[in-house]
C-alpha cells in the first residue's frame, strides 16, 4: 500500500462538528495521517486537544504562520503534504494563499473565500504552483448523488429542462430573534462570515449540487433574501431563480430559519424522458421517475450502479452509509490526485467549483440589493 499522505489540520478543535467530520473522513480509507495542526487559536487548548485525540504534540503549532515556517524547514519527505482549512470564513483566503504559494495541497471548507476577487486570486495561485485544491461540498460524495450525475451524463432522463433544489435548516431560529444573541454568532458577523450567511453557508451547496449533477453551468440568477430584522446585515433565508439556458431553468431555495428543519437538502431534476429525486436525510434512495414506467428506487452497492457510485460505496447493499462516508470519498479522490493516480473528475469538487460558488454568492447578494434583478454569472 502507498505511504499515508501527511495531513495538517487548521481549526476544528474541541467539539467542532466540522472538525470531527474531517478527521474521521480522512481516516476511513487509510490514506492519511494527521501529523501537524493548529486546532485552536489558544496554543494551550490546541495542545490539550491533541492529547485528547491522541495526536503527538511535537508538531502542534502556536499559530498558522509558525506551522508553515516550521514545516518548510523539514525534509520534503517528512513535511505536511496537504492542509485542511476548517476555520471561520474570513481566514480561508489568507491561509489557502500562503499554503498554495509554498507548495502545499489544500482541502478547504466552503465558501472558499469571502469575496469573488479573492477566489480568483487563489485560482491564479493554484495554477502557478500546480497544486491540488479541493473544496468540501460534502454531498457530492454520496454514492447516489454520484449515480445521479452519471445517469444524467448517460442520457437516462434525456435533456434536462427543470431543476428544483432546496436546503432548509432551522438552527438559527434560536439566535436570530434575540438581538443580543445574534451579535455573538460569527455567521451573522460580516467581518468573519463575509457578505452572506445563508447563501454562503448552505445556498452554495445547493448551487454546487445543480452543477455537479446536471453537468450544466448556471448562467444567470435572480435572488430575493429575507433578513428578518432591520439591524441584521446577513441573509438568513433566500430564493434564487436560475437560468442555465434559454429553456433550462430552475430554483434554489435556502433557509436557516425553516422552523423544525434539520439538514433538509433535497434535489429534483427533470428531463424530457424522466426525473430524478434525492434527499440528504435519506441518502441511500435515488428516485427514478417516468411518465410511462412505475417509480424506481436505486440504492447503493448494487451492480446496476455506475462505476463512480460503486467506488464511493464501502458496504454491501442494505448497510446505510452517511455523511462521514461522503466526506471520506472526497478525501479519497484528493489522495488519488496527490499521488498522481487516475481519478474521475467527479471524485472531488475543485478550484473551479470553489470559484463558481463565490461568483454565485456575490451575484445573489448583488441581485437582491438591486431590487431582485437578473445578474449574469461569469
Task: Please explain how this structure is put together.
With 378 residues, this protein is α/β, with parallel strands linked by helices. The protein has two domains: 5-138, 3-Layer(aba) Sandwich (Rossmann fold); 142-313 and 351-369, Dihydrodipicolinate Reductase, domain 2 (2-Layer Sandwich), CATH 3.30.360. It has 13 helices and 14 strands. A nine-stranded mixed sheet has the order 13-12-11-10-6-9-8-7-14. A five-stranded parallel sheet has the order 2-1-3-4-5, sandwiched between helices. Helix 4 (92-101) links the parallel strand 3 and strand 4. The longest helix is centred in the C-terminal third of the chain and has 19 residues, at 351-369. The chain is globular, with a radius of gyration of 21 Å. GO terms for molecular function: nucleotide binding. This is Oxidoreductase. It comes from Arenibacter certesii. Residues 6-136 form the Gfo/Idh/MocA-like oxidoreductase N-terminal domain.
Q: Main attributes?
A:
378 residues; Rossmann fold; Dihydrodipicolinate Reductase, domain 2; alpha/beta; 14 strands; globular; 2 domains
In a nutshell, what does this entry contain?
By secondary structure, the chain is an alpha/beta fold.
Question: Structural class of the secondary structure composition?
Answer: alpha/beta
CATH class of the largest domain: Alpha Beta
Count of DSSP strands: 14
How far the N terminus sits from the C terminus, by CA atoms, comes to: 43 Å
Mean pLDDT: 96
Enumerate the spans where pLDDT stays under 50 for 5 or more consecutive residues: none
Strand sequence of the main sheet, in spatial order? 13-12-11-10-6-9-8-7-14
Which fold name corresponds to the CATH topology of the largest domain?
A: Dihydrodipicolinate Reductase, domain 2
DSSP summary: helix tally = 13
Query: Going by CATH, what is the homologous superfamily of the largest domain?
Result: Dihydrodipicolinate Reductase, domain 2
Organism: Arenibacter certesii
GO molecular function, one term: nucleotide binding
Protein name: Oxidoreductase
Amino acid at each position: 500500500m502507498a505511504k499515508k499522505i501527511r495531513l495538517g489540520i487548521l481549526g476544528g478543535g474541541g467539539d467542532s462538528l466540522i472538525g470531527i467530520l474531517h478527521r474521521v473522513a480522512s481516516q476511513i480509507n487509510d490514506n492519511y495521517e494527521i501529523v501537524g495542526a493548529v486546532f485552536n487559536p489558544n496554543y494551550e487548548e490546541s495542545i490539550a486537544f491533541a492529547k485528547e485525540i491522541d495526536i503527538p504534540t511535537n508538531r502542534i503549532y502556536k499559530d498558522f504562520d509558525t506551522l508553515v515556517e516550521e514545516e518548510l524547514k523539514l525534509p520534503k519527505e517528512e513535511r505536511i503534504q496537504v492542509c485542511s482549512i476548517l476555520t471561520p470564513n474570513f481566514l480561508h483566503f489568507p491561509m489557502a494563499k500562503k499554503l498554495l504559494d509554498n507548495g502545499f495541497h489544500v482541502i478547504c471548507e466552503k465558501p472558499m473565500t469571502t469575496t469573488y476577487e479573492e477566489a480568483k486570486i487563489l485560482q491564479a495561485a493554484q495554477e502557478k504552483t500546480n497544486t491540488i485544491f479541493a473544496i468540501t461540498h460534502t454531498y457530492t460524495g454520496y454514492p447516489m448523488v454520484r449515480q445521479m450525475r452519471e445517469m444524467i451524463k448517460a442520457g437516462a432522463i434525456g435533456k434536462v429542462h427543470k431543476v428544483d433544489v432546496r436546503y432548509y435548516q432551522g438552527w438559527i431560529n434560536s439566535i436570530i430573534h434575540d438581538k443580543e444573541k445574534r451579535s455573538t454568532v460569527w455567521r451573522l458577523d460580516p467581518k468573519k462570515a463575509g457578505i452572506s450567511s445563508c447563501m454562503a453557508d448552505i445556498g452554495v451547496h445547493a448551487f454546487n449540487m445543480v452543477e455537479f449533477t446536471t453537468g450544466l453551468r448556471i448562467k444567470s440568477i435572480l435572488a430575493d433574501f429575507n433578513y428578518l430584522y432591520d439591524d441584521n446585515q446577513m441573509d438568513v433565508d433566500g430564493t434564487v431563480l436560475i437560468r442555465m439556458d434559454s429553456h433550462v431553468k430552475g430554483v434554489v431555495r435556502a433557509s436557516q430559519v425553516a422552523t423544525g428543519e434539520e439538514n433538509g437538502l433535497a434535489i429534483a431534476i427533470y428531463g424530457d424522458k424522466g426525473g430524478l429525486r434525492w434527499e440528504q436525510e435519506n441518502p441511500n434512495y435515488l428516485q427514478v421517475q417516468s411518465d410511462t414506467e412505475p417509480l424506481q428506487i436505486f440504492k447503493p452497492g448494487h451492480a446496476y450502479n455506475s462505476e463512480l457510485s460503486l467506488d464511493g460505496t464501502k458496504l454491501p447493499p442494505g448497510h446505510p452509509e452517511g455523511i462521514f462516508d461522503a466526506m471520506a470519498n472526497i478525501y479519497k479522490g484528493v489522495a488519488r490526485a496527490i499521488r498522481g493516480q487516475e481519478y474521475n473528475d467527479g471524485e472531488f469538487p475543485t478550484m473551479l467549483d470553489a470559484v463558481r460558488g463565490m461568483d454565485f454568492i456575490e451575484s445573489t447578494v448583488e441581485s437582491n440589493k438591486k431590487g431582485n434583478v437578473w445578474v449574469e454569472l461569469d
